[in-house]
Amino acid sequence: MGGGKGCCGVCKIVGLLVGIGALNWGLVGVFGIDLVEKALGMMTTPARIVYGIIGLAGAIKLVSFVKACPCCKTGSCDKK
Fold first, then answer.
1. What is the pLDDT of residues 12-41, one digit of tens each?
2. I need a surface site. Which of 21, 29, 34, 53 has the fewest CB within 10 A?
3. Helices marked H in 32-75
4. What whole-number distance in Å separates Cα of residue 11 and Cα of residue 15?
5. Whole-angstrom Cα distance, residue 58 to residue 36?
6. What b/e string do you get for 9-23 counting C-beta neighbours within 10 Å, with b at 16 or more?
């Protein structure tokens, strides 16, 4: 799930969402700016959906460190 050319589409999307989530948390930690909150409101239903999707992407990413790619089961994303 490294985002390389051999990755499946789901792995690429998961990597993108994890990156976006990391950037958002970096902004929260350094500047106190939560982009999701600014865009969608504080804990509105759409904001909760976005947080949930990004959290799910993080969970999938963590699973990929233990097992081969959970969506395509090839593990090709970890090879260069």
1. 899 999 999 999 999 999 999 999 999 999
2. 29
3. 35-40, 45-66
4. 6
5. 16
6. ebbbebbebbebbee
